[in-house]
Design brief:
The protein has about 350 residues and is of the alpha/beta class. It folds into 2 domains: about 210 residues, inorganic pyrophosphatase (n-terminal core), CATH 3.90.1640.30; about 120 residues, Diaminopimelate Epimerase, Chain A, domain 1 (Roll). It has 13 helices and 11 strands. The protein has a 6-stranded mixed β-sheet, with helices on both faces. A 5-stranded parallel β-sheet has the order 2-1-3-4-5, sandwiched between helices. α2 packs parallel to α4 and α11 crosses α12. The chain is globular and about 55 Å long. The structure holds manganese (II) ion (MN).
Amino acid sequence: MLHALVRKVSRVLDAAENVGIVADIDADGISGAATLCEAFRVEEGDVRFPPGGFYGVPEELLREMLESYDVVVAVDVTPPRVAGGRDRVIVIDHHPSPARYPMTINPHHVRALPKNTSASALTGMIAHRAGRLRRPWLPLIGAAGDGLDRGPVYETLARLVDPELLTPPPGRKLNPIQDAAATVNAARRVEYHKGAERALEVLLLADSPHEVAESHLARYRGKVRAERGTWSERASRTVHVVLGVGYAEVHSEVDIEGLVAQDLLRRKGLRCAVVYNSVRKPCGLLKVSGRARGFPVNELLTEMARWLDGARAGGHPGAAALHFRSGDPKEAFNRATDELLSGEPIDPESTAPRRR
Ligand SMILES: [Mn+2]
């Protein structure tokens, strides 16, 4: 089943006169797109990213791409269903989303694939099976960016790279591939799709992950680090906690809400943290990001979406996001936690204020 599907996708990509790629703007999407570009001779200019922090593929963008290309590949996103796309859209994703196209390679729909596989590792698998994975570290960047640098698909690709790339140098926390992933992700946090385009350009030319981390993209990391530090500090002082689930607000032009949520989990010992960024994204939407350990934050955000206008939630139990047009996210959080946590026995430990 998997084997046949991968062969079919390779055949369709080889046979197509022209191929367009639409990818998520994070390291997983970008490195997956770069891997396909290299393996199937797709030009940098034929890769599109959803604009301005929009998550998913706008229907108009997909329609437009289907007018210009024989085949469109979506990486790390599942596009909406459009007429005439059935046999011309390939989806390589790992989010729990409906299978809208027959050519969907997603662990949620293909049993042979473990759920902890990143979209970029899936593109690496396709390129490798076609015998055209020239830089095997490339798809590993996306896996590291999503924190999915494990599992059998990843391990198969990891055996192809120099082990030095998988080991942090003395005194460092990140290995060179994780370092490259953090650099790529910083670009899109600051400049959204423009940052993703710059990162793609770097990935298509780099000879090693070191070159990615040392590229001009490195300047974005300083900016992200500074914003993250400031807002994580403030958020940990203002966080509102209900039964071990925290809510905080930030106000930053930089897409740091997910990182601040991550910091809150650790700093406050929470099981779940959601962070609202009150600066509107360039695409016009507002965003809440959530991180959790042993708590389904995707369900919490789906519940919150019911109380907000123009809202759409998606993601995994450990990391999820909610985009919306208007409404009061704190009110939505209170209602959602009421709804989800009211049946739970109250654990006095988790509500007690932590003392230093
Ligand atoms: Mn991903």
